[in-house]
Known about the structure:
By secondary structure, this protein is α/β, with parallel strands linked by helices. It is built from 21 helices and seven strands. It has a five-stranded parallel β-sheet. Strands 6-7 form a two-stranded parallel sheet.
Amino acid sequence: MNHGDSPRDSFCIMGTVPVMHLEVNQQLNLFENNERRENSGPLAFRMRPVDLTDYVGQEHLVGEQGPLRRIIEEDRLHSFILYGPPGSGKTTLALLLAEKTKSHFEYLKAVTSGVTELRNIARDAQQRWDYYRQKTVVFVDEVHRFNKSQQDVLLPFVESGLFTLIGATTENPLYELNSALLSRMKIYVLNPLTPGEIEELVRRALKDPVRGLGARDVSLSEEALQEIIARSKGDARTALNILETACEIRSQASGSIVLEAQDIRDTAGHFYINYDKKADHHYDTISAFIKSIRGSDPDAALFWLAVMIHGGEDPVFIARRLVIHAAEDIGMADPQALLVAVAAFHATELIGLPEARIPLAEATIYLATAPKSNRSKVAIDMALDYVRQLPSLQVPAHIADNSHSRSHLLGKGKGYLYPPSYGGYVKQDYLPPGLERPTFYQPTNNGHESQVQEFLEWLKQQYEKDDPRKPKA
């Protein structure tokens, strides 16, 4: 570059879009968005807040002392992830940040962006900093949809501070994002909006004459309002979409519009359950299901079973979890539980839904009301740890296989005492010689296991006093 050339001139010579031109475009885009918000677009888009004081929900993040409120108002940004369900305000927060920050703001959708675009943004961010000392903020909506190679491209830019990365995701970032990238970002968790917050948004939309429905003289009965709240399930976008659609259906009516509960039901149809068989809802719901059974709450267990069935969960997956739970958390306290669970599994495979809901429910109730013991699981895990630490292992000759007609030549089976010939029990070693006798299985006093405990106590007494005897007649 010649001494007489300006940095802006050098950009044009290099064929790069001037940074100042990028800034003007950004301001125009934000201005156009605000104009369009007042005049067109869905109600949920028009009602997006233009300032933090209008933002509803997430008090733990944007309240007076909330961490996000401070960094937005003070324009003191760091890389972070906004993790929360749909309609909780993730993109809205990003747009509010865009209007507050002095940094250049880039908005990307992960589903339509690629590695080339990321590298171009990084190049422009470097030039913007070199020539204007202006920082860059990159917001990636649905960041979980970036594949591993795209996330790897982001890593050095975030690590070096070339730009500040803000990602929004409905999926658990601990599973969907690279650990190296996550270690350089803070995670802020957004919650579904409360019924009171949904009500505030709906009433605000009804009153606003410019962006909302205030100019159309629309009102809601209390029952209709509660119907919207129930069907939105904490999703602000869903609530406003239901309201707007119900108004459009009734718009042919002359004069004012009064929406009743039936209008909302006709508009929204069946209740929607936010359930994804491959994401957080899948794992969280099955966890709640098993923990309800483990906690001996059959009604809660049936509730989560219904959530999974209604959400389209694979019934065989549910049945497999019941089998695992029966062995792991009930075990010897009620050995029948495993048989019930396995029977439910086979029945589910055989008949499928909707009929399979009945054996699944039967097994769920049986397991939830059964006594609990995890001592079988604890015992085998202890035994595995013990075996892993053994330097060598040899099966004692007297309990080794002697099925071959000439196995006696190897000494196998010699000296073995057949317990049924001694009334069912005879003192005899079943562990390798030289091992200190371990105790892996320690039964509880729950259910059938209390009887097992009594039997083991009797065996211990016999072992301490008995010697091999002649077979009983």
